[in-house]
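User: Quick sanity check before I run a bigger batch. Here is a single chain. Can you write out its predicted 3D structure?
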Amino acid sequence: MADVNYPYFDYVFHKLSEHNASMESVFGRHVHWGYWDTPAEATTHDEDFAQAAEQLTTELTSLAGVASGQAVLDAGCGFGGTLASLNERCERMRLTGLNIDVRQLERAQDTVHAAAGNEIVFCQGDACSLPFPDASFDRVLAVECIFHFPSRELFFREAHRVLKPGGILALSDFVPSAWFLPAAWLASRKALSRFNYFGHCDVRYSVARYRALAARTGFSPLVQRDITRHTLPTYRHLKALLAEKARIPGHTDLAARLVPVLEYLGRAKLLNYYLMSFRKPV
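Assistant: Done. Predicted structure follows.
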C-alpha cells in the first residue's frame, strides 16, 4: 500500500470538522488548483476559487474527451469532485472513484450521489495495482495526484490495462523545467517527506520523461498543455486561507512557508502545471 500521510489533508479535514465555511467552499468538493481564463481578473473570494477549481476539472475532462455514455475511472479521486462534475454534466455514465485514503472516500460517498441514469461507485485501492478487469474503462483520469503515487510507470501500465482500445488517460501534474530538474530530484527524496506539508511528492517528470514513459507503456501522447499562467491565482487563495484566522499553530506554519516557494517556482517557469493526455492504441 502507498503512503497516505499527507498533512494537508489532515488540515482540510480539521477545518471541515469545524464547519469552516471557507474550507467547505474552497476544498469541500475539489482538492486541487484552480484555472482562470483571465488570471488578472481573479479575486480572493471563496466563490471565485470554487469556480476556478470547477473550471480546471472542465479543462481536464474536455482534454480527455469525456462524453455521455462512457465508463470513467478517477484514480486518486479525492472528495469525488471530478465525478460529481461529470455526473451533473453527462448522462448514462458509469463513474468509478478510487482512493487509498478511506477518509476521503467516506466524504465522497456522503456528498456525491448518482443522477438518474448514471452509476457512481467509490472504492479503496492503490492506483498502481488497480482492482479492475482489463478493458473496463473508456477514460482514466488522475487529477493533481500522480506525484503522490509510488510509481508513475506502474500506474501507466495499470491504466493501459484497464482502458479499452482507443481509450484515453488524462492527468494534471507539476512538471519541472530542464533548469529545475536537479533540484526536483533532490526535493523528491522520500527522506525529506517529513519536512513537506504536502507529503511525499515526486516532481521529477519532465515533458520528455513523460513521453518516454508513454512509449514504454504502450501509450501515444496526445496533448501536453502548459497552463501554469492560468493557475497562478491559486497561491493568493492559499495564502489567504492560511492566514491567521484559518491557522492551526504548529500545523500550518510549514504550509505558510512552502506556498510562496511554490508560487515563485511557478512564476519563474521552473515548476509548471500541465494537463496531459495519452491514448491507448486501437
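The chain has one domain: 7-36+43-279.

User: Great, the batch can go ahead then.
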